[in-house]
Design goal:
alpha+beta
Length: 390
């Protein structure tokens, strides 16, 4: 094998602490995640023990306050952690992003009493979260959701079905958006629902083309009773809470996409340097060298785009447009890069003996989750030209 294998990404990090953090993440990824990724994805095995390890290492609450067990890291650092984890195994990287999304509502809109009661366990107590917005008939049009929460004294009774829930059936808590009032976005409220709540059941996980180790399932709420103390924010505030969470979550998906793309480029480069045809490494041929150059350029551009958006967020500035741009560009780049990686490996790339076919299948879902890329284009256009007049 060649001794010119790809080197770790040279990251621009703000502090020595963050550099040590990324070194720890790389060590965990190399030792605990990457070696079993292909086998466990093929078997459809969810690596709960990895999330327990990440929680113990303080990696499940990185962007949240230290007073509740979070890591107090800026998004600029947190997203690069996600990228490293996703490069090792997307089920893990995206799982951490979803967990962070599930914590966002309580951390940003909960009362001090709610935060003190629940955030320590959510951020560093070994719990794993999920986010429940989509429904069978309410995907891109999330404001049309029909899951209802009806007031009953000091409690709420939640009834309905959520769909496409990452960690559905294995999560310890769910941030749930339900209708408590009028039709449309103003009638939606957010709740924190325990994973073992009576009346809450999960369907059989979906059979997916990729990310087979990450359970995605419908959740059925059959008269699930939660106290009003688990309502997040004000009644009717849920949709704005959801949108704020999705802006942050889209950056997580962008970072995961670049991680997948980087992993594919690394595999393709190593193969191209080692594989010989006509007496030369195939990396010597210009057509292939140009493919590698284009792949690397897409990755660098995507990384710069998501980090620029993260720095806006860290500075307290608006970043919704940039988050949509990052999600759009990075996930499209991941699809293109992984497709080219399969092409570079030729017939081998189409087999499960090499990881690029799995990376290509996984990249596809990133163009769909947390707002399809068509929705991202609508968001960007609205920032540019205002709302549609039709």
């Amino acid at each position: 094998m060649t001794d010119r294998a790809p080197q770790p990404v040279d990251r621009q990090l703000p502090t020595e602490e963050s550099r040590d953090l990324l070194a720890l993440v790389r060590e965990i990824a190399q030792r605990e995640i990457r070696p079993r990724a292909a086998e466990e994805e093929d078997a459809g095995r969810f690596p709960r023990e990895v999330f327990t390890l990440l929680s113990e290492a303080g990696l499940l609450g990185l962007p949240y306050p230290g007073e509740y067990g979070g890591g107090e890291q800026p998004y600029e650092v947190y997203l690069q952690v996600l990228e490293e984890l996703a490069a090792a195994r997307l089920t893990v990287g995206l799982g951490v992003s979803v967990h962070s999304l599930a914590c966002h509502g309580l951390a940003g809109y909960g009362t001090k009493e709610q935060q003190a009661a629940h955030l320590p366990a959510m951020l560093g107590g070994g719990l794993l979260g999920a986010y429940c917005l989509s429904e069978p008939a309410a995907g891109s049009d999330a404001a049309s959701l029909t899951t209802k929460a009806v007031r009953d004294g000091d409690d709420w009774i939640i009834t309905g079905t959520k769909a496409w829930i990452t960690h559905g059936g294995v999560a310890d808590f769910y941030t749930v958006l339900a209708r408590t009032g009028v039709e449309g976005p103003k009638g939606i409220t957010a709740f924190l629902v325990p994973g073992d709540a009576a009346g809450l059941t999960a369907a059989v996980p979906e059979k997916k083309m990729g990310m087979k180790g990450s359970p995605t399932a419908q959740l059925h709420f059959d008269g699930v009773r939660v106290p009003d103390s688990r309502r997040i924010g004000e009644e009717g505030q849920g949709f704005s809470i959801a949108l704020a969470a999705l802006d942050a979550g889209r950056l997580g998906i962008a970072a995961c996409a670049i991680g997948v793309a980087q992993a594919a480029l690394d595999e393709a480069l190593t193969y191209a340097l080692d594989r010989k045809q006509f007496g030369h490494p195939i990396a010597d041929f210009q057509g292939l060298r140009f493919m590698l150059a284009d792949m690397a350029t897409k990755i660098e551009a995507g990384r710069a785009l998501y980090l620029a958006a993260a720095r806006l967020r860290d500075a307290g500035k608006p970043f919704s447009r940039q988050a949509a741009m990052a999600k759009l560009f990075c996930t499209d780049a991941a699809m293109a890069v992984t497709t080219d990686a399969v092409q570079i490996l030729g017939g081998y790339g189409y087999t499960a003996d090499f990881p690029v076919e799995r990376l290509m299948r996984e990249a596809k879902v990133l163009q769909i989750v947390e707002g399809t890329n068509q929705i991202q284009r609508m968001v960007i256009a609205r920032h540019l030209a205002g709302p549609e007049t039709r």
